[in-house]
Amino acid sequence: MGQKKLLRFEAIGNFANVLQYPEDMRGKWNDFFKNKNPVTLELACGKGEYTIGLAALYPDRNFIGVDLKGNRIYAGALEGLRKNLLNAAFLRTHIDKIDGYFLPDEVSEIWITFPDPQLRTSRAKKRLTHPRYLRLYQNILKQGGFVHLKTDSPALYYFTKLVADLYGINILDSSEDIYTRPENPAEMYIKTHYEKLDIAASDKIYYLKLSLPEKQIPMPDLKFQQLLKQIENTEQI
Question: Of these four, 51, 101, 120, 187, which has the most CB atoms within 10 Å of its CB?
Answer without folding.
Answer: 51
